[in-house]
């Protein structure tokens, strides 16, 4: 077992591994092996040994194969070593990790050992400040709590200390995200192009082509040279005598059925005309309008089917153009080949009232679409990482779109009132956000059991938006009074569906556990359920679920259970059972108080709180 | 054009062959599917061929294998019947049928990998696994814990997370639980196995890099990417892997043993 200095590090680690295998086969060797290895893995040893040792100790105190009583004894042996390892400010990170894991496993054992409570009942690893008697010689409950919250603060501050500079350790990751976004954007453009070649469409075209194939045994097209003088672009591309409006009407059908040979011939014809034109006019290319990949001295015009500029280049070009006017169609393409100017007629002006009405119409259509998309047959068209929200056009996508429209689209604008000349309100009286909310509210309630996920998505968006807004608009140190839509609509929804709940409903438990935040007023609504004796259990189990699985709201959930105990006689047996575990003494104190005063048992929240 | 799975995988293919053991640090893996027969066993084999420590489980209530009709499946309890017994039983029942549907081939492979199907929920995490020395991928799993769990179906991922929550994390040890969605047939299982091995390689590379940085001083001098701990890098690594394997949708979370 003893590692002799002549052995290499690798050989010594192999020896240590041999010892580890021995204890894994028979855990009764742990005390001996730990005793023997402690000197090898101490703070002054090489990092390989410290890593091995801290992992070995983490494993020893984690494994359920060793009885807790033995772990308790062993912990006294290793604590000094763990302490000296963890206190080295330059300690290796992986050593630290092992030490922390070991310490985390030892903590409950050590705590129980120090407190030494007489009856050892329940889960021995379950520890609480409540176990520390008030006058304990070594442990001060308040001090423990202060230490714990200090530690928690330090851990959480790691999440907040994020400075945005190039030295930020996350800079690389941010860069990766940006690149991924760019790629997603390129894919979106790419996909738009792809849509036109859907399988069924091509096969339809092919079917038609078969019918027309016999007709076009020889390409029916006559290629004439361009006439001299000025030619418009349209004339360069024209081989028929059709009037332009007629050509426009039939172009889609014609292109769909076009014979490849005719097309090739026509393209060849246009190419020949342009080549002839180039020879006649050897003019420098206008760099402002020429495609980016055409060199000035490159007169070998090769049209292809790909965009001359990729998305990135287009974006750059658009970004760097000084004004919008430059992008219109008036700029001549090539010397004399001018494209006639075309301008869309300006849209009719909308007054705010009309704009609001049109907006509502659009929203109503989205809801209409959502109705038809109920029960998607192809759930999860794309799963996995690197997804884009709302990209699958199913019901979930539309819900994402509509909830974000409601919560984010005009966040912060709702509160601004614009007045016109007569200082009458120029904006419509109902904001678009609120009308979407009304529609969402109605949509959820139409079938709240099935659509509770929509409610949760929506309210999570509300909550998220409020958090973000709070963070970016409030001056430091001052509370921000953003419109509290999250709580308002949560309460409205709860109020609306509470009357329909029955005693076996799991929907309430689910709703409460999935909401991003719970407040005293939300839980107070649950309290009102107890007016119906058949719903007492539902209310209490939903609250108890929160007590067990949502520690951040444990206290307000327990307060609510206390309130229920106080207010509803029927609920007392169950409520008392739950309170017994988490707030032992409350029920006794409350009953004593009732006996003593023989008036109303207990006051409001937390008036009688046992520790 | 739809990108084929693993289009730009750079690692050398490991068709049926063993990979040479490079030594060095190795993450410990666990593969999980419903019956611990097809997808998890394919991945178990692949990972063991690449010399990774690996164990495997199923999350179902029973081991279910197709029978002569959809209403007559062959059902076995977990942990009690070996792959070899199943092989012999099905071979005796209907050699032609079970050869044609690939079951004998699958069971034949499985019995070369380990003794029999194990149920996730019955796994005593942290109890030493010293008795399974003959299993493929056993070396390194003696401590009875793993660093990464691969599930092959979202249902199994849910079951694993749920079970870990119920156990109450007594071991204080983090574990990455990654779902790689694989359809339950032989062909997809083979593709999925390759995908999982590629992901395992990427993860192990990052874990090795973390171990190459020693002490706090060098830690501060390292570049931003390598300064991040292995655990922090996992989501990024899966994201990059997902681009190589777009048809194997992945889900990830950090859980605790």
UniProtKB/TrEMBL annotation, chain A:
Q: Which Gene Ontology terms describe the biological processes this protein takes part in?
A: mRNA processing
* Record-annotated Symplekin/Pta1 N-terminal domain positions: 118-162
- CC annotations in GO: mRNA cleavage and polyadenylation specificity factor complex
Report any Pfam family annotated for this entry: SYMPK_PTA1_N
Among its keywords, does the record have Transcription regulation? no
Report the locations given in the UniProt record.
Nucleus
Q: Which UniProt keywords apply?
A: mRNA processing, Nucleus
**Where does the UniProt entry say this protein principally localizes?**
nucleus
Q: What is this protein called?
A: Symplekin/Pta1 N-terminal domain-containing protein
UniProtKB/TrEMBL annotation, chain B:
Principal localisation: nucleus
Q: Please state what class of enzyme this protein is.
A: hydrolase
Q: Which domain of life is it from?
A: Eukaryota
For the biological process aspect of GO, one term held by this record is: mRNA 3'-end processing
This entry's Enzyme Commission designation comes to 3.1.3.16
What is catalyzed by this enzyme? O-phospho-L-seryl-[protein] + H2O = L-seryl-[protein] + phosphate; O-phospho-L-threonyl-[protein] + H2O = L-threonyl-[protein] + phosphate
Key word Iron-sulfur present in the record? no
Q: Which GO terms describe its molecular function?
A: RNA polymerase II CTD heptapeptide repeat phosphatase activity
Cross-referenced InterPro entries, in alphabetical order? RNA_pol_II_suA (IPR006811)
Alphabetically ordered keywords of this record: Hydrolase, mRNA processing, Nucleus, Protein phosphatase
Any single Gene Ontology cellular-component annotation: mRNA cleavage and polyadenylation specificity factor complex
Q: Where does the protein end up?
A: Nucleus
Does the keyword Nucleus feature in the UniProt annotation?
Answer: yes
* SUBUNIT field: Component of the cleavage and polyadenylation factor (CPF) complex.
Query: Which family does the record claim for this protein?
Result: Belongs to the SSU72 phosphatase family.
What is known about what this protein does?
Component of the cleavage and polyadenylation factor (CPF) complex, which plays a key role in polyadenylation-dependent pre-mRNA 3'-end formation and cooperates with cleavage factors including the CFIA complex and NAB4/CFIB. SSU72 is required for 3'-end formation of snoRNAs.
Q: What is this protein called?
A: RNA polymerase II subunit A C-terminal domain phosphatase SSU72
Q: Which organism is it from?
A: Xylaria grammica
